[in-house]
Amino acid sequence: MITSSEAQDRCAQIIDLAIQAGADAADAVASASSSENVSVRLGKLEEVERSEGEEIGLRLFVGQRSASVSTSDFSKASLQEMAERAIAMARLAPEDEYSGLAPQDRLLTGAAPDLDLSDASEPTPSQLKDLALETEDAGRAVGGVTNSGGGSASFGRSVVALATSHGFSGGYEATHSSLSASLIAGEGETMQRDYDFRTARHAADLPQADTVGQTAGERAVARLNPAGLPSGTMPVVFDPRVGGSLIGHLLGAISGAAVARKSSFMIGRLEDAIFGENIRICDEPHRQRGLRSKPFDAEGLPTSARDIVAVGRVTGWLLNSASARQLGLAPTGHAARSGSGSPGISASNVHMCAGTCSRDDLIGDIQDGVLVTELIGQGVNGITGDYSRGASGFRISGGKLAEPVSEFTIAGNLIDMFAALIPADDLEMYRAINVPTLRVDGMTIAGE
User: Fold this and answer.
1) Tens digits of per-residue pLDDT, 347-396?
2) 238-267: per-residue pLDDT in tens?
3) What is residue 362's three-state secondary structure?
């Protein structure tokens, strides 16, 4: 696989060709990746997959018109043809007054921070197989587990590079290691399935394989014999593995693209106290070994930590250069892209700071409520904030977790939900979006 410096050289080459072909400005993104995944089921090897790929994407501008193309053929003749084709496409495109490269005076200068994203060691296929078997075996050993959806272990390595015609060039390498297991409990129509999945930049940061498998098995068994849930209004507690989705809806609503299109429920609310005063949500692109850590954004701007929410208030929009121009603001270093095409917008490693009460105390005064461990469907309106999703989990009765429940819907409005949200103190930092257990009172349940 190519190195980061080689990927930057490719970007510089295609940009030079684009300028020679008549582009006024251009940027290029080169990427390369390799991954290996080993899957087992019922103690036997099921599949070994290896994939490798390299790509370069070019975006160029002719005045206020732009076009994007990509290729996996890196010969000079192919790159020359690609640049000429992009020029022809751009000349036919409509003008966009907001298009263009990032402001030159805001580009990252100097050395990019080292975020320790690449693991020097690489497991062999045999080692991945052993890890997958250990993961599944631990799950199958849990009492009540009757079948398996399989276990897997994987490792991947990637390179990303970006260059622009107005002075930026940078790149970095990253790895990921993953373990997963899916287990089945019960028989026939009573069967229940659950899983556990962990991924990290460095294999040393993963939990033990048997821990992942055991967790998956215990989760499957705990779901056996679910009851229904009566309709009504009650407190809903979100387990951390689903609670991060609430923050994901917020991130979508404060994306500059959504705001510029006037398709966000957050428009007109920047001055409002959306959450309680104790709520703080942070974006940390420079977290060492973070799953979404990056030294610069997809336009060459430096990334930096910021509070997305402080003292209960959203601190501002997440902006790439195009949305910043539309809104008359400065870009915030949140441009994101893969391959060809214009940059989108994305946060990096996000977490909600922990609260002050334990998970048990958070649940302890709920006489009748529900802990949600799985969400189903996409019933969220980004314009109004209306929220309605299928769910399953465990009933809360008398301040304690009770029987599993399934086939019910939770509904509300995200603005009301954010205002009512209470975090526990059990924050763990291993996902892309990390939250503690979250409680939201007054949600509507549609059940039996």
Assistant:
1) 999 999 999 999 999 999 999 999 999 999 989 999 999 999 999 999 99
2) 999 999 999 999 999 999 999 999 999 999
3) helix
One domain for residues 292 and 361: yes
∠ CA 303-354-118, nearest 5°, is 40
Please give the Cα distance from 173 to 189 (Å, whole number).
47
Instruction: Look at residues 176, 196, 221 and tell me which one is the last residue of a structural domain.
Output: 221
Q: Which two tokens stand for residue 283?
A: 């974006």
* 270 plus 147 within the same structural domain: no
In degrees rounded to 5, what are phi and psi of residue 2? -65, 160
Report d(CA 439, CA 412) in Å as an integer: 13
Contact yes or no for 82/11 (Cβ under 8 A): no
- Which residue type sits at 180? S
| DSSP H or E run through 240 | helix 240-253
**Which of these, 91, 69, 90, lies nearest to 80 by C-alpha position?**
69
Q: Which of 5, 34, 340, 10 is CA-nearest to residue 158?
A: 34
- Residue 393: phi and psi, rounded to 5, are 170, -135
Structurally, the chain folds into a number of domains equal to 2
Are the beta carbons of 447 and 230 closer than 8 angstroms? Answer: yes
